Records
---
Amino acid sequence: MDGMDADATSSGATPGSPGSPGTPAAPATARSRRFDPDRRARIIDAALDVIAEVGVAGVSHRKVAARADVPLGSMTYHFDDMDQLLRVSFEKFADTIATRYEQWFRQATNADEARAAVVGLIHADLLDSQRELVLTTELYTLAARKPEFRTLTCDWMARSRRALRPFFDEPTTHLLDALIEGLFIHAALDTTPPERARTAEAVRRITSG
Amino acid sequence: MDGMDADATSSGATPGSPGSPGTPAAPATARSRRFDPDRRARIIDAALDVIAEVGVAGVSHRKVAARADVPLGSMTYHFDDMDQLLRVSFEKFADTIATRYEQWFRQATNADEARAAVVGLIHADLLDSQRELVLTTELYTLAARKPEFRTLTCDWMARSRRALRPFFDEPTTHLLDALIEGLFIHAALDTTPPERARTAEAVRRITSG
DNA sequence: CGGTCATGCGTACGAGCGTACACATCCCGA
DNA sequence: TCGGGATGTGTACGCTCGTACGCATGACCG
């Protein structure tokens, strides 16, 4: 006997229009307990939010459900288990970041502009990157332990390099990509802020065959 | 009512020599339930082992206690709470790695030998680094979220740079250290193994003012 | 030798967890 | 109109967890 099981997630039942027939086609925007087409996507976003806040260590079905405003039972209905939810969530995260990365370099038209873009990327990203920094390191941690997450990081890195490829030769893209990673992490985990000039110098050196 | 609380951690009591007076000075090597001078250190080592195996996410007092062969009550006796245990454990880990790093470069006598040492470091470390890779990313994850861990990573990075400082000018040590970080992570999380020649080329470029 | 007190430990409690599963609800064909 | 199948949800069970705390133990002093 727990006597405590009825938690905030479920109970309430949000009366609203209990038996209302409602418009047959439904107004698309009005999601209800029963009709809620993009619930799955919302769960994924909520999961990423929760991970960013309390870490993979602190994630639970209940927290994610509460954040997504979804009944607890929905979690295991849409995702087999916690592992799958994490995997799917990080897939979406990696895709989002990689896409932005690609677009960032799409504006460059030559090697010099690409170099400038790299510097800008590192320093711009740092401004509001708390969430992304945390999610990135959480993903790396998972990847360090479980191979099934490693394919994810692997694909992500491949996309990053492909974005640099138009401007530099193949070996250089590898080196540059690794340098970006290192600068990014050190900048994020160091207390002294990075100097833009120093970053620019690093990029210049690594891209000068 | 749980009825399940008596878990493997405690019970047993390992009879051995229950009331034995033992040698007054104690044979140093024979730790007993009561006399166990380096218990604290053993708990820390056990904690790192457990973290490496199941991640910060999966760590618990009970698992660490079992691994260290220590009663559960000992955990909160020696450490105020889980957070402190993690902090102390990662302090030890960072110190261990940084010390090895310093010794690794102490053998070099000039810039060229230092460059070779860098390449060797990245490729040697990768061989048996599963444990260290995991612990490192776990630490970064913690540092990304909690400032009190960031001072730890920060000191670690400072020591690393100091180890490089005898061979390169100040800005270069920053760049080289970041490059090492990036190469290391990418090598670890990529599926294709890194090529030694490529690493050497990266080091050459970044250290050529 | 006997009493006292710091040290260290076993155990129980209450909370939070993942997940299974009976059941409510809705949709749709007849 | 009605019945049956599909879809989604509330809730309970069996666990593990961190931590508080009363008590056993052995050292030490008189």
---
Amino acid sequence: MFNAARNAKRKIITFGDDGETIPSLIVEDAKASSLTELRPDAALNEAVTGNAPEPPSGQEKSINLSCTAVSNGDSNNKRQHIPKRKFESQKPYSSSDRRSGNAAKQPEHVTEALRQKARELAKHRKQLPIFSARETIIKEVKDNACVIIVGETGSGKTTQIPQYFMEAGLSAHGTIAVTQPRRVAAINLAKRVAQEVGTTIGNQVGYSIRFDDTSSKGTKIKYMTDGIMLRELLSDRLLLNYSVIVLDEAHERTLRTDILFGMVKSIQKQRAEMIEQGKKGIEPLKIVVMSATLDAEKFSAYFYNAKIMYISGRMYPVKVLNTIEPQSDYVDAALVTAFQIHQEETAGDILIFLTGQEEIENLEKLIEEYSVDLPTRFGKLIPCPIFAAQDSATQQKIFEPTPAGCRKVILATNIAETSITIPNIRYVVDTGCHKSRGYNAKIGIESLLIEPISKSSARQRMGRAGREAPGLCFRLYTEDSFEQLEEDTVPEIKRCNLASAILALKASGVEDVTKFDYMDRPSKSGLLKSMEQLYALGALDDKGDLTEMGKKMAGFPVDPPYAKVLLQSEVMECTKEAIEIIALLSVDTIFTFPSNKREEANEARQKFLSLDGDHLSLLNVLRGYESVKGDRDWCRENFINGRHMRHVLEVRKQLIEFSERAGINPRTSCGHDYEIVLKCFLAGFFQNAALLQPDSTYKAVVGGLTVNIHPSSAMFGKKRAAIMYNELVFTTKHYIRGVSAIEASWLAQAAPKYFGQRQA
DNA sequence: TAGGCTCTG
């Protein structure tokens, strides 16, 4: 390597030469596309699975809509014809666009400009690989109740297919809904499609996300988050506003998408039965499931053996290299690999996937340290960390152009796997690990642990190298290790607390949640544990039916214990404070902790801390933030995450609106009598209490587990006889967060039934 | 003494 002394310590990592090469999927010519029956496209299959193609088991029901792949030599030229999709390159975290434009009010020259833009885009739309399959897709959806569409990133499926449906008249009796797991995607897709249609957001094309609904009566295509669709189910149980539901990114298997699978399937059946019975004004519901992987057989089997259509994407080839030997320290291996790439490979930035902030900051320091000895002819290697807890200004740094002759190395968590698309990445370094949230249903405890990723996750990471040009993916594990990985990430529904989902199901009319039609069934103990929690909160009665209180709780866009606190705040007359603290607790953390300024950050935090714990400390931060009207410099000086604070204000606003609608006065305040606020929180969190033991540890009142106050808590190191907490997560220990001091006697007052029963 | 990532009319 670059330094003889260090070279002795740092051996070069050998990667296998014969790693799989992912063929180009760039389409030679849209017209060349033809409908070939029965098999997924070989190139696509190989690209996605890394294996030789196998015929799908249900051969009769699959259709191949993919086009001829060409070598990458031609593809660079060809690609220039294809318009770059704006929504892919836009920076995330832009604040929601609140313009609910109305073309009808636009001056004529503006609408003409929109039409002109749409005409230009129309040419490009026709060149997309998917265009040649247009008629087939329309026909299949018209002829079938459910259709599965598999297509890689860049196939244009999410922007084009809803437009095809609209053009074919499928929106005549209802809106075409397209659900997305992420807000940014919903916004950007809607903006792009509005342009292509020749309109502004809020007319034929709109989006609906939390805090921002741009749809109107005339909206034909509506991009929305899956959470919003779940909310709509509460008021429109048959989704009568919709004619087609497109469930996009189905392979991600978020909890909400999984719940939607079962709900839309049931709604489709109910609507069909009503039509059969001659009910008027009911139209059939079409379901389209879109996924990026070839795990389509599972979706098909679930949706009555629905037909599967395969569409090729537009990805450049990515050569995958595995290490010859297993690596004992993947951070060290990543360091070595980054310098190897920098010295041996052509221009292009590097993206390294790590598991968390600590690893990222360690590697950042190491890269800076070793860069000192790098011969000048190689140019600088610039580390750029990115993870969710950063403030937005820091996050934006990764989008700054790389200085000439230098190379950026992006150090990222999974945020770069799906949420953020970083330009100019040619090299991906995959450590094969991520931090994964788990849930032990039997004891009801969440965990956050480093675990191996799945094969589909590894492929997703690999794909990040081939978005703009052919790339290389260095896997810091052997090919054998890859083969041993699970095929897919375990669906979220099997590894999280289900209380919120069950409350939503119950409130949407599902009486027996154990018999619900899950694609992947959560464990019985998981369901029971969550139902017990809802029962303890008073949301379910002895028979497991939804109570009046449960109905009210389901209406609030917060987790069940917080909803309970909100309802209780009316009784305790502290709604203003309850809403504010819930809003503050609903973001990850409002404090930032840059590792190089840890002491300064801790010092800045001290002035907000309340002796009574985190709930009141958070309230102090909000008061400070409002007194300076959210000044950015104030946030920076106090190590407060401004982006998260703005989110807090939005949540507060929404909770105020919801409270008003529920007949609760959101301005009712307890003044400075903060004891009332803590007692109020105990109404939702009485199961999360712990008592100080003679040995100075805290023992949970329910379950008897020894819990540790998280070092970021205002209560860290404090000894109070009794405490309550909002969250318990196992990492290296059982850490509790959101901790405040209480008095043990408050517990019986907060939940007489619960603690009465337990004593009996 | 330490926080993967989403998301809620």
